[in-house]
Design goal:
The protein has one domain. 49% of the residues lie in helices and 8% in strands. It has a two-stranded antiparallel sheet with strand order 1-2. The termini are far apart.
């Protein structure tokens, strides 16, 4: 599942971070047991994928209230 998450991130998506971990485990077990085919895996992941939020939503560039001026040696 980690490789899948990395693939999605490289392509600008994130697997839903608010997803119930039990659903992820269930999918992994079903895949391992051969109970789900590739089109159904893809459909499930498509439903879980969200566009990766822009950096402004998750990076605090001004954590020390300097106006975002962070340079090496400051």
């Amino acid at each position: 599942m980690a490789a899948t998450a990395a693939f999605y991130q490289v392509n600008g998506y994130v697997i839903a971070y608010d997803l119930d971990p039990g659903r992820v485990v269930e999918l992994v077990v079903y895949v391992a047991e051969g109970l789900v085919d590739v089109p159904n895996i893809a459909a499930t992941l498509k439903g879980w994928a969200k566009t990766f939020p822009p950096p402004a939503e998750w990076i605090d560039d001004d954590h020390d209230n300097t106006g975002g001026r962070h340079h090496r040696g400051d």
